Amino acid sequence: MRPAALALVLLAAPAARAQTPEIEAAIQAKLGASRYALKLEDPAGGFAPAAGGKPGLRATSACVRTLKYSGAKLPNADNHAAFVMACFDPKTGGFADAPGRKADVTLTSVGVMAAVELGVPKDRYRKALDYLRDNAKTFEEVRIAAAGVEAWGVKDCPFSVNPWIDTASAEMRKELPDARDGGARAAGSAAALVARLGARIGRQEHLLLTGILTSGQRPDGGWGKAGAKTSDLETTYRVMRALVLLEQRPSEPARLRAFLAACRNADGGSGVVPGEASGAGPTYYSAIVTHWLARFEK
Length: 298
Description:
Its cofactor is Zn(2+). With 298 residues, the protein is mainly α.
């Protein structure tokens, strides 16, 4: 049986047990996302960011996790693990998007997450943690580096993450724009960073943050960047990541499901905004947000 067919067989059984339109729609969304991700696969190793592209580390990480959260089996896992490690430079500790290219903080964090997900022994890329420690300086760099440390295991992190927590705390003290005009994105980014690293968020801060995050949901059902009229999946992912970590449901899940559906395309993948071509990244955002919604609704 072909890998794509096998994945669909694994997903098809729950479809027979669908009891509501929402459950049926979620199952169909998972089937579509897994089909799309598998179309981007190079069986020799890696996934492309979009149809017709060449394999890249970010796309590989996104597709591996799309298949995971869609309930599909990952084919050729050893080859994909080998591709991820081919993107690692043992001299610097950095990961690049493709073998031989330049490493940076974002890609190194993505590489750590992908390697952990694929079960690569940590000793093979332990120096990546040194790279993150030495190179994550800006808030955005620290934010994504924290995701890599979370995947690695905060308790096993070989350096103190307190300076990163201080960076996030300083970000949360800044005056935020309107919740629907980028404020929820900013608050969610900082809150997720703190929560990922296991730092305590006080009751008053928790109430303030969850209020900003939930009130920032736009009429179209998603969350968006400052100045943007349309919500986008990347911002929606950031806010939902924070809500999950804060154990807070979105206030209007039905509108959120409608936004996810609006971003979904006939090929099963999703664009970052409605009407945009599908890509590995936004398809992953849609898949994991769909997964979180199901968790909240259990």
